[in-house]
Write a structure and sequence with these properties.
The protein is α+β, with helices and mostly antiparallel strands. The protein contains 8 helices and 12 strands. The chain has helices at residues 3-26, 36-69, 87-116, 223-238, 242-252, 277-284, 288-297, 320-336, and strands spanning 123-130, 133-138, 144-146, 149-152, 157-163, 168-172, 177-181, 187-191, 197-203, 215-221, 260-261, 266-267. The strands form 3 sheets. The protein has a 5-stranded mixed beta sheet. The protein has a 5-stranded mixed beta sheet with strand order 4-10-9-6-7, covered by helices on one side. Strands 11-12 form a two-stranded antiparallel ribbon. A hairpin with a 2-residue loop joins strand 1 (123-130) and strand 2 (133-138). The termini are far apart.
Length: 337
Protein backbone atom coordinates (compact mmCIF):
# COMPACT_ATOMS: atom_id res chain seq x y z
CA UNK A 1 0.00 0.00 0.00
CA UNK A 2 1.28 3.48 -0.86
CA UNK A 3 2.02 6.01 1.90
CA UNK A 4 -0.58 8.63 0.82
CA UNK A 5 -3.78 6.56 1.28
CA UNK A 6 -2.49 5.13 4.57
CA UNK A 7 -1.96 8.63 6.00
CA UNK A 8 -5.38 9.74 4.73
CA UNK A 9 -7.09 6.72 6.38
CA UNK A 10 -5.20 7.27 9.64
CA UNK A 11 -6.09 10.99 9.62
CA UNK A 12 -9.82 10.46 9.05
CA UNK A 13 -9.89 7.59 11.58
CA UNK A 14 -8.18 9.68 14.25
CA UNK A 15 -10.58 12.61 13.80
CA UNK A 16 -13.67 10.32 13.84
CA UNK A 17 -12.36 8.45 16.91
CA UNK A 18 -11.59 11.72 18.73
CA UNK A 19 -15.11 13.08 18.07
CA UNK A 20 -16.74 9.81 19.24
CA UNK A 21 -14.51 9.73 22.35
CA UNK A 22 -15.43 13.34 23.22
CA UNK A 23 -19.16 12.54 22.86
CA UNK A 24 -18.74 9.47 25.09
CA UNK A 25 -16.72 11.21 27.80
CA UNK A 26 -18.07 14.76 27.96
CA UNK A 27 -21.83 14.09 27.80
CA UNK A 28 -23.28 12.88 31.11
CA UNK A 29 -24.75 9.56 29.89
CA UNK A 30 -24.81 7.74 33.22
CA UNK A 31 -26.08 8.57 36.73
CA UNK A 32 -23.51 8.81 39.57
CA UNK A 33 -22.05 5.51 40.83
CA UNK A 34 -23.21 4.52 44.35
CA UNK A 35 -22.46 0.79 44.62
CA UNK A 36 -19.48 -1.52 44.08
CA UNK A 37 -21.55 -3.58 41.62
CA UNK A 38 -22.34 -0.51 39.52
CA UNK A 39 -18.61 0.37 39.48
CA UNK A 40 -17.81 -3.04 37.95
CA UNK A 41 -20.71 -2.84 35.49
CA UNK A 42 -19.34 0.51 34.31
CA UNK A 43 -15.99 -1.19 33.59
CA UNK A 44 -17.78 -3.56 31.18
CA UNK A 45 -19.65 -0.60 29.72
CA UNK A 46 -16.54 1.48 29.00
CA UNK A 47 -14.63 -1.60 27.74
CA UNK A 48 -17.43 -2.17 25.21
CA UNK A 49 -17.65 1.52 24.31
CA UNK A 50 -13.88 1.64 23.64
CA UNK A 51 -14.17 -1.29 21.21
CA UNK A 52 -17.14 0.41 19.54
CA UNK A 53 -15.21 3.66 19.10
CA UNK A 54 -12.24 1.81 17.56
CA UNK A 55 -14.47 -0.04 15.05
CA UNK A 56 -16.41 3.17 14.34
CA UNK A 57 -13.18 5.04 13.53
CA UNK A 58 -11.98 2.29 11.13
CA UNK A 59 -15.36 2.07 9.33
CA UNK A 60 -15.71 5.85 8.99
CA UNK A 61 -12.12 6.17 7.70
CA UNK A 62 -12.60 3.52 4.98
CA UNK A 63 -16.07 4.82 4.08
CA UNK A 64 -15.17 8.52 3.75
CA UNK A 65 -11.88 7.74 1.96
CA UNK A 66 -13.73 5.53 -0.58
CA UNK A 67 -16.51 8.05 -1.14
CA UNK A 68 -14.06 10.78 -2.11
CA UNK A 69 -11.20 8.78 -3.66
CA UNK A 70 -13.25 6.37 -5.82
CA UNK A 71 -16.07 8.74 -6.74
CA UNK A 72 -17.40 8.06 -10.31
CA UNK A 73 -17.27 10.95 -12.79
CA UNK A 74 -20.74 12.47 -13.47
CA UNK A 75 -20.80 11.06 -17.03
CA UNK A 76 -19.39 7.61 -16.11
CA UNK A 77 -22.20 5.08 -16.80
CA UNK A 78 -19.93 2.01 -16.95
CA UNK A 79 -20.10 -0.97 -14.55
CA UNK A 80 -17.47 -1.52 -11.87
CA UNK A 81 -14.76 -4.15 -12.34
CA UNK A 82 -15.92 -7.78 -11.64
CA UNK A 83 -14.90 -8.82 -8.13
CA UNK A 84 -14.65 -12.38 -6.76
CA UNK A 85 -14.23 -11.96 -3.02
CA UNK A 86 -11.06 -11.90 -0.94
CA UNK A 87 -10.43 -14.90 1.33
CA UNK A 88 -7.86 -13.09 3.46
CA UNK A 89 -10.23 -10.16 4.16
CA UNK A 90 -13.11 -12.50 4.93
CA UNK A 91 -11.06 -14.43 7.48
CA UNK A 92 -9.99 -11.16 9.12
CA UNK A 93 -13.49 -9.68 9.38
CA UNK A 94 -14.80 -12.92 10.85
CA UNK A 95 -11.93 -13.46 13.27
CA UNK A 96 -11.71 -9.91 14.67
CA UNK A 97 -15.41 -9.64 15.74
CA UNK A 98 -15.23 -13.19 17.18
CA UNK A 99 -12.28 -12.22 19.37
CA UNK A 100 -13.87 -8.92 20.45
CA UNK A 101 -17.29 -10.40 21.31
CA UNK A 102 -15.62 -13.27 23.19
CA UNK A 103 -13.54 -10.73 25.15
CA UNK A 104 -16.71 -8.79 26.11
CA UNK A 105 -18.31 -12.10 27.14
CA UNK A 106 -15.37 -13.05 29.38
CA UNK A 107 -15.19 -9.61 31.05
CA UNK A 108 -19.00 -9.69 31.63
CA UNK A 109 -18.87 -13.18 33.14
CA UNK A 110 -16.12 -12.12 35.59
CA UNK A 111 -18.10 -9.00 36.61
CA UNK A 112 -21.37 -10.96 37.04
CA UNK A 113 -19.63 -13.55 39.24
CA UNK A 114 -18.00 -10.87 41.41
CA UNK A 115 -21.23 -8.82 41.68
CA UNK A 116 -23.12 -11.89 42.93
CA UNK A 117 -20.46 -12.85 45.50
CA UNK A 118 -21.80 -11.93 48.96
CA UNK A 119 -19.47 -10.08 51.34
CA UNK A 120 -19.13 -10.72 55.07
CA UNK A 121 -21.88 -9.85 57.58
CA UNK A 122 -24.66 -9.67 54.98
CA UNK A 123 -27.70 -7.48 55.74
CA UNK A 124 -30.89 -9.13 54.49
CA UNK A 125 -33.88 -6.99 53.49
CA UNK A 126 -37.25 -8.24 52.25
CA UNK A 127 -38.67 -6.06 49.49
CA UNK A 128 -42.39 -6.23 48.86
CA UNK A 129 -43.92 -4.61 45.78
CA UNK A 130 -47.61 -4.00 45.18
CA UNK A 131 -49.67 -1.71 42.95
CA UNK A 132 -48.26 0.95 43.42
CA UNK A 133 -45.97 1.04 46.41
CA UNK A 134 -42.78 -0.44 47.88
CA UNK A 135 -42.24 -1.67 51.39
CA UNK A 136 -39.03 -2.89 53.00
CA UNK A 137 -38.72 -5.26 55.93
CA UNK A 138 -35.63 -5.96 58.02
CA UNK A 139 -36.42 -9.54 59.16
CA UNK A 140 -33.37 -10.08 61.38
CA UNK A 141 -33.37 -6.64 62.95
CA UNK A 142 -36.47 -6.08 65.07
CA UNK A 143 -38.84 -6.93 62.20
CA UNK A 144 -38.82 -3.23 61.28
CA UNK A 145 -40.87 -2.25 58.23
CA UNK A 146 -40.19 0.93 56.26
CA UNK A 147 -41.58 2.75 53.24
CA UNK A 148 -38.07 3.86 52.26
CA UNK A 149 -35.05 1.60 51.77
CA UNK A 150 -32.40 2.52 54.33
CA UNK A 151 -28.99 0.90 53.95
CA UNK A 152 -25.64 1.22 55.74
CA UNK A 153 -22.75 2.28 53.51
CA UNK A 154 -20.08 -0.29 52.65
CA UNK A 155 -22.04 -3.37 53.78
CA UNK A 156 -23.12 -6.26 51.58
CA UNK A 157 -26.93 -6.20 51.24
CA UNK A 158 -29.03 -9.08 49.95
CA UNK A 159 -32.53 -8.07 48.84
CA UNK A 160 -35.23 -10.76 48.74
CA UNK A 161 -37.90 -9.44 46.41
CA UNK A 162 -41.48 -10.48 45.98
CA UNK A 163 -44.77 -9.03 44.76
CA UNK A 164 -48.28 -9.08 46.17
CA UNK A 165 -50.03 -8.78 42.79
CA UNK A 166 -48.41 -8.35 39.35
CA UNK A 167 -44.79 -8.27 38.14
CA UNK A 168 -42.87 -5.15 39.14
CA UNK A 169 -39.16 -4.46 38.81
CA UNK A 170 -36.79 -2.93 41.36
CA UNK A 171 -34.30 -0.38 40.06
CA UNK A 172 -31.98 2.16 41.62
CA UNK A 173 -30.00 3.65 38.69
CA UNK A 174 -27.06 4.58 40.94
CA UNK A 175 -26.81 0.93 42.11
CA UNK A 176 -26.82 -0.21 38.48
CA UNK A 177 -28.96 -3.37 38.47
CA UNK A 178 -32.61 -4.27 37.92
CA UNK A 179 -34.49 -7.23 39.40
CA UNK A 180 -38.07 -8.29 38.73
CA UNK A 181 -40.45 -8.89 41.63
CA UNK A 182 -42.70 -11.84 40.82
CA UNK A 183 -45.66 -13.08 42.90
CA UNK A 184 -44.77 -16.39 44.59
CA UNK A 185 -41.08 -16.27 43.68
CA UNK A 186 -38.20 -15.07 45.88
CA UNK A 187 -35.91 -13.19 43.48
CA UNK A 188 -32.67 -11.81 44.86
CA UNK A 189 -30.39 -8.87 44.27
CA UNK A 190 -27.00 -8.20 45.85
CA UNK A 191 -25.90 -4.58 46.44
CA UNK A 192 -22.94 -3.06 48.24
CA UNK A 193 -23.71 0.68 48.50
CA UNK A 194 -20.47 2.65 48.65
CA UNK A 195 -21.62 6.28 48.71
CA UNK A 196 -23.79 8.01 51.32
CA UNK A 197 -26.80 9.75 49.73
CA UNK A 198 -30.44 9.52 48.70
CA UNK A 199 -31.30 7.78 45.43
CA UNK A 200 -34.61 7.04 43.69
CA UNK A 201 -36.16 3.55 43.81
CA UNK A 202 -38.03 3.17 40.52
CA UNK A 203 -40.48 0.52 39.33
CA UNK A 204 -39.21 -0.34 35.87
CA UNK A 205 -41.86 -2.84 34.72
CA UNK A 206 -45.18 -1.48 33.38
CA UNK A 207 -47.53 -2.66 36.14
CA UNK A 208 -50.72 -0.62 35.76
CA UNK A 209 -52.14 2.88 36.00
CA UNK A 210 -49.88 4.03 38.85
CA UNK A 211 -46.64 2.58 37.41
CA UNK A 212 -45.12 6.03 36.89
CA UNK A 213 -45.68 7.03 40.52
CA UNK A 214 -44.41 3.74 41.99
CA UNK A 215 -41.31 5.33 43.46
CA UNK A 216 -39.64 5.76 46.78
CA UNK A 217 -36.16 6.56 48.08
CA UNK A 218 -33.07 4.48 48.87
CA UNK A 219 -31.17 6.24 51.65
CA UNK A 220 -27.56 5.14 52.13
CA UNK A 221 -26.27 6.21 55.55
CA UNK A 222 -23.17 5.68 57.73
CA UNK A 223 -23.33 2.42 59.76
CA UNK A 224 -23.75 4.30 63.08
CA UNK A 225 -26.66 6.41 61.78
CA UNK A 226 -28.25 3.28 60.33
CA UNK A 227 -27.98 1.42 63.66
CA UNK A 228 -29.52 4.43 65.45
CA UNK A 229 -32.41 4.56 62.95
CA UNK A 230 -33.04 0.80 63.24
CA UNK A 231 -33.05 1.02 67.04
CA UNK A 232 -35.51 3.93 67.12
CA UNK A 233 -37.79 2.16 64.60
CA UNK A 234 -37.70 -1.05 66.65
CA UNK A 235 -38.76 0.91 69.73
CA UNK A 236 -41.46 2.86 67.87
CA UNK A 237 -42.97 -0.36 66.50
CA UNK A 238 -43.23 -1.95 69.94
CA UNK A 239 -44.31 1.23 71.80
CA UNK A 240 -47.81 1.11 73.30
CA UNK A 241 -48.20 4.90 73.01
CA UNK A 242 -50.87 5.52 70.33
CA UNK A 243 -49.61 8.82 68.94
CA UNK A 244 -46.03 7.56 68.42
CA UNK A 245 -47.16 4.27 66.96
CA UNK A 246 -49.61 6.06 64.60
CA UNK A 247 -46.68 8.10 63.31
CA UNK A 248 -44.61 4.90 63.08
CA UNK A 249 -47.34 3.15 61.07
CA UNK A 250 -47.44 6.15 58.69
CA UNK A 251 -43.65 6.02 58.29
CA UNK A 252 -43.34 2.27 57.94
CA UNK A 253 -45.93 2.24 55.16
CA UNK A 254 -45.40 4.00 51.83
CA UNK A 255 -47.90 6.84 52.61
CA UNK A 256 -45.15 9.46 52.44
CA UNK A 257 -44.06 8.52 48.90
CA UNK A 258 -47.37 9.91 47.50
CA UNK A 259 -48.87 12.27 50.09
CA UNK A 260 -48.15 15.51 51.88
CA UNK A 261 -48.55 15.58 55.68
CA UNK A 262 -46.80 18.35 57.57
CA UNK A 263 -46.72 16.46 60.88
CA UNK A 264 -44.79 13.59 59.22
CA UNK A 265 -42.55 15.80 57.08
CA UNK A 266 -44.09 14.20 53.96
CA UNK A 267 -44.16 16.44 50.89
CA UNK A 268 -45.21 14.35 47.89
CA UNK A 269 -48.07 15.50 45.64
CA UNK A 270 -49.18 12.38 43.74
CA UNK A 271 -52.15 11.86 46.06
CA UNK A 272 -54.32 14.32 48.00
CA UNK A 273 -52.76 16.55 50.69
CA UNK A 274 -53.51 14.80 54.00
CA UNK A 275 -53.46 18.12 55.87
CA UNK A 276 -56.78 18.84 54.09
CA UNK A 277 -58.52 15.63 55.24
CA UNK A 278 -61.28 17.46 57.19
CA UNK A 279 -62.24 19.41 54.03
CA UNK A 280 -62.25 16.24 51.90
CA UNK A 281 -64.42 14.42 54.47
CA UNK A 282 -66.90 17.27 54.34
CA UNK A 283 -67.06 17.06 50.53
CA UNK A 284 -67.51 13.29 50.72
CA UNK A 285 -70.31 13.88 53.26
CA UNK A 286 -68.84 11.58 55.94
CA UNK A 287 -67.60 12.01 59.50
CA UNK A 288 -63.79 12.43 59.52
CA UNK A 289 -62.88 9.14 61.31
CA UNK A 290 -65.16 7.05 59.05
CA UNK A 291 -63.89 8.85 55.96
CA UNK A 292 -60.22 8.22 56.83
CA UNK A 293 -60.84 4.54 57.65
CA UNK A 294 -62.75 3.99 54.40
CA UNK A 295 -60.06 5.80 52.37
CA UNK A 296 -57.43 3.43 53.79
CA UNK A 297 -59.18 0.09 53.32
CA UNK A 298 -61.18 0.98 50.19
CA UNK A 299 -59.29 3.93 48.63
CA UNK A 300 -61.44 4.13 45.50
CA UNK A 301 -64.74 4.60 47.32
CA UNK A 302 -64.11 8.35 47.15
CA UNK A 303 -61.21 9.94 45.25
CA UNK A 304 -60.70 13.67 45.63
CA UNK A 305 -61.22 15.55 42.34
CA UNK A 306 -58.03 16.18 40.33
CA UNK A 307 -56.21 13.07 41.66
CA UNK A 308 -55.78 9.75 39.79
CA UNK A 309 -58.32 6.94 40.29
CA UNK A 310 -57.23 3.37 41.15
CA UNK A 311 -53.68 4.32 42.06
CA UNK A 312 -53.65 3.98 45.85
CA UNK A 313 -53.34 0.39 47.11
CA UNK A 314 -55.88 -0.72 49.76
CA UNK A 315 -54.33 -1.07 53.22
CA UNK A 316 -56.90 -3.66 54.26
CA UNK A 317 -54.42 -6.12 55.72
CA UNK A 318 -52.94 -3.76 58.32
CA UNK A 319 -53.38 -5.25 61.81
CA UNK A 320 -56.40 -3.62 63.49
CA UNK A 321 -54.28 -1.96 66.20
CA UNK A 322 -52.08 -0.32 63.56
CA UNK A 323 -55.07 0.77 61.47
CA UNK A 324 -56.75 2.36 64.50
CA UNK A 325 -53.53 4.13 65.45
CA UNK A 326 -53.04 5.39 61.88
CA UNK A 327 -56.63 6.72 61.67
CA UNK A 328 -56.21 8.53 65.01
CA UNK A 329 -52.83 9.92 63.93
CA UNK A 330 -54.31 11.28 60.66
CA UNK A 331 -57.25 12.85 62.54
CA UNK A 332 -54.90 14.55 65.03
CA UNK A 333 -52.34 15.76 62.52
CA UNK A 334 -54.83 16.97 59.89
CA UNK A 335 -56.74 18.99 62.50
CA UNK A 336 -53.45 20.61 63.48
CA UNK A 337 -52.53 21.27 59.82
CU1 LIG B 1 -44.82 -1.43 39.68
CU2 LIG B 1 -44.43 -0.47 37.53
Amino acid sequence: MRRGPLFALLGIGTVAGAIATAVAIFLPWLPPVASKERGRIDVVFWFTVSICILIFAIVVAVLLYSVFRFRAAPDDESDGAPFHGHTGLEIVWTLVPTILVTAIGIVSAIVLARDDALGKNVLEVNVSAQQFAWSFQYPNDGKVTSGTLRLPVGRSVLLHLTSKDVIHSFWVPEFGQKQDTVPGIDTQLHITPDKVGTYPVICTELCGLGHAVMRTAAIVMPQAAFDKWLKSETQATSSPNTSTSGAAVFKSNPCGSCHTLKAAGATQKVGPDLDNLPAYAQKAGKPLPDFIRESLVDPNAYVEKGYPQNVMPPFDNLPKGQLDALVQYLIDSSKKG
